Amino acid sequence: MLGVEFGATHTEVVLTADGPRVIETHVRMGGDEIPALAHDATGVELAEYVVRQTVGEEVLPQLRTSLAAAPAGRSSAIWFAAAPAAGVLTAVEGTELAAEVPGVTEVRLLVEPGAKLAALASSDDRIAYARAVSDSPGAALAAARQAVELLEFQIRSRATTGPTV
Question: Is 111 a member of any domain?
Fold first, then answer.
Protein backbone atom coordinates (compact mmCIF):
# COMPACT_ATOMS: atom_id res chain seq x y z
CA MET A 1 0.00 0.00 0.00
CA LEU A 2 1.30 3.44 -0.94
CA GLY A 3 -0.52 5.34 1.77
CA VAL A 4 -1.38 8.29 -0.50
CA GLU A 5 -4.02 10.40 1.26
CA PHE A 6 -3.78 13.71 -0.59
CA GLY A 7 -3.19 14.87 -4.16
CA ALA A 8 -2.99 13.24 -7.54
CA THR A 9 -1.74 9.76 -8.20
CA HIS A 10 -2.06 7.29 -11.03
CA THR A 11 -1.24 3.69 -11.74
CA GLU A 12 -0.70 2.35 -15.25
CA VAL A 13 -1.89 -1.15 -16.04
CA VAL A 14 -1.44 -3.28 -19.15
CA LEU A 15 -3.88 -6.04 -19.99
CA THR A 16 -1.98 -9.25 -20.79
CA ALA A 17 -3.05 -12.77 -21.69
CA ASP A 18 -2.45 -13.63 -18.02
CA GLY A 19 -4.56 -10.72 -16.75
CA PRO A 20 -3.82 -7.12 -15.75
CA ARG A 21 -0.27 -6.21 -14.74
CA VAL A 22 0.84 -2.98 -13.05
CA ILE A 23 3.46 -1.16 -15.12
CA GLU A 24 4.13 1.82 -12.85
CA THR A 25 2.56 4.12 -10.31
CA HIS A 26 3.29 7.77 -9.52
CA VAL A 27 2.20 10.40 -7.03
CA ARG A 28 1.45 12.97 -9.73
CA MET A 29 -1.12 13.45 -12.47
CA GLY A 30 -0.73 11.10 -15.38
CA GLY A 31 0.81 12.15 -18.68
CA ASP A 32 0.09 10.92 -22.22
CA GLU A 33 -3.28 12.71 -22.26
CA ILE A 34 -4.62 10.75 -19.26
CA PRO A 35 -6.39 13.84 -17.80
CA ALA A 36 -8.03 14.48 -21.20
CA LEU A 37 -9.09 10.82 -21.45
CA ALA A 38 -10.60 11.01 -17.96
CA HIS A 39 -12.43 14.21 -18.90
CA ASP A 40 -13.76 12.67 -22.12
CA ALA A 41 -15.16 9.71 -20.17
CA THR A 42 -16.41 11.47 -17.04
CA GLY A 43 -16.59 15.22 -17.66
CA VAL A 44 -14.27 15.79 -14.69
CA GLU A 45 -11.38 18.25 -15.05
CA LEU A 46 -8.72 16.54 -12.92
CA ALA A 47 -6.34 19.51 -12.88
CA GLU A 48 -9.06 21.74 -11.43
CA TYR A 49 -9.59 19.35 -8.52
CA VAL A 50 -5.85 19.00 -7.88
CA VAL A 51 -5.41 22.78 -7.74
CA ARG A 52 -8.45 23.29 -5.53
CA GLN A 53 -7.31 20.55 -3.14
CA THR A 54 -3.78 21.97 -3.08
CA VAL A 55 -5.07 25.36 -1.89
CA GLY A 56 -7.02 23.69 0.91
CA GLU A 57 -10.50 23.08 -0.47
CA GLU A 58 -12.32 19.87 0.34
CA VAL A 59 -13.04 18.47 -3.11
CA LEU A 60 -14.16 14.88 -2.57
CA PRO A 61 -17.89 15.58 -2.05
CA GLN A 62 -18.18 17.58 -5.29
CA LEU A 63 -15.96 15.12 -7.17
CA ARG A 64 -18.17 12.22 -6.08
CA THR A 65 -21.27 14.14 -7.20
CA SER A 66 -19.70 14.90 -10.59
CA LEU A 67 -18.69 11.28 -11.10
CA ALA A 68 -22.19 10.07 -10.14
CA ALA A 69 -23.63 12.37 -12.84
CA ALA A 70 -21.17 11.18 -15.52
CA PRO A 71 -22.62 9.17 -18.41
CA ALA A 72 -22.68 5.51 -17.38
CA GLY A 73 -20.42 3.26 -19.41
CA ARG A 74 -18.77 6.04 -21.41
CA SER A 75 -15.24 5.09 -22.47
CA SER A 76 -12.35 7.05 -23.88
CA ALA A 77 -9.33 5.74 -25.76
CA ILE A 78 -6.18 7.06 -27.38
CA TRP A 79 -4.07 5.67 -30.21
CA PHE A 80 -0.59 6.96 -31.02
CA ALA A 81 1.21 6.98 -34.38
CA ALA A 82 4.88 6.23 -34.88
CA ALA A 83 6.94 7.21 -37.90
CA PRO A 84 6.65 4.57 -40.62
CA ALA A 85 10.26 5.32 -41.62
CA ALA A 86 13.19 7.43 -40.48
CA GLY A 87 13.75 10.67 -42.34
CA VAL A 88 12.47 14.23 -42.52
CA LEU A 89 8.73 14.85 -42.37
CA THR A 90 7.70 16.86 -45.42
CA ALA A 91 3.90 16.84 -45.12
CA VAL A 92 0.93 15.33 -43.30
CA GLU A 93 -2.43 14.72 -44.91
CA GLY A 94 -5.71 13.35 -43.62
CA THR A 95 -6.09 15.29 -40.37
CA GLU A 96 -9.50 16.68 -41.35
CA LEU A 97 -10.74 13.25 -42.44
CA ALA A 98 -9.41 11.67 -39.24
CA ALA A 99 -11.22 14.28 -37.12
CA GLU A 100 -14.51 13.36 -38.80
CA VAL A 101 -14.44 9.73 -37.60
CA PRO A 102 -17.48 9.29 -35.35
CA GLY A 103 -16.49 9.51 -31.69
CA VAL A 104 -13.14 11.22 -32.28
CA THR A 105 -12.60 14.10 -29.85
CA GLU A 106 -9.11 15.16 -30.91
CA VAL A 107 -6.50 14.50 -33.58
CA ARG A 108 -3.14 16.04 -32.80
CA LEU A 109 0.15 16.11 -34.67
CA LEU A 110 3.10 15.99 -32.31
CA VAL A 111 5.61 17.00 -35.00
CA GLU A 112 5.58 19.51 -37.82
CA PRO A 113 6.98 19.34 -41.35
CA GLY A 114 10.74 19.66 -41.17
CA ALA A 115 11.03 17.42 -38.11
CA LYS A 116 13.58 14.63 -38.16
CA LEU A 117 11.86 11.31 -37.51
CA ALA A 118 13.40 8.17 -36.08
CA ALA A 119 12.20 4.66 -35.38
CA LEU A 120 10.02 4.28 -32.30
CA ALA A 121 12.29 3.87 -29.27
CA SER A 122 10.35 5.80 -26.60
CA SER A 123 7.17 7.81 -26.12
CA ASP A 124 9.11 10.87 -27.33
CA ASP A 125 9.21 9.33 -30.82
CA ARG A 126 5.42 9.36 -31.28
CA ILE A 127 4.32 11.67 -34.07
CA ALA A 128 0.53 11.95 -33.66
CA TYR A 129 -2.46 10.69 -31.75
CA ALA A 130 -6.23 10.50 -31.85
CA ARG A 131 -8.61 10.37 -28.89
CA ALA A 132 -12.15 9.03 -29.14
CA VAL A 133 -15.17 8.28 -26.96
CA SER A 134 -17.89 5.67 -27.19
CA ASP A 135 -20.25 3.57 -25.10
CA SER A 136 -17.72 0.73 -25.05
CA PRO A 137 -13.93 0.59 -24.63
CA GLY A 138 -13.54 -1.45 -27.83
CA ALA A 139 -15.53 1.01 -29.94
CA ALA A 140 -13.60 4.00 -28.53
CA LEU A 141 -10.31 2.28 -29.30
CA ALA A 142 -11.45 1.31 -32.81
CA ALA A 143 -12.41 4.93 -33.57
CA ALA A 144 -9.07 6.28 -32.31
CA ARG A 145 -7.16 3.68 -34.34
CA GLN A 146 -9.22 4.38 -37.46
CA ALA A 147 -8.48 8.09 -37.16
CA VAL A 148 -4.72 7.50 -36.88
CA GLU A 149 -4.81 5.10 -39.84
CA LEU A 150 -6.26 7.93 -41.98
CA LEU A 151 -3.18 10.09 -41.40
CA GLU A 152 -0.63 10.04 -44.20
CA PHE A 153 2.93 11.06 -43.41
CA GLN A 154 5.20 12.01 -46.28
CA ILE A 155 8.82 11.44 -45.34
CA ARG A 156 12.00 12.21 -47.24
CA SER A 157 14.74 9.70 -46.53
CA ARG A 158 18.12 8.74 -47.94
CA ALA A 159 19.37 5.33 -48.89
CA THR A 160 21.67 3.59 -46.45
CA THR A 161 25.24 2.84 -47.42
CA GLY A 162 25.52 -0.37 -45.44
CA PRO A 163 26.05 -3.85 -46.88
CA THR A 164 23.44 -5.21 -49.24
CA VAL A 165 21.88 -8.63 -49.02
Answer: yes
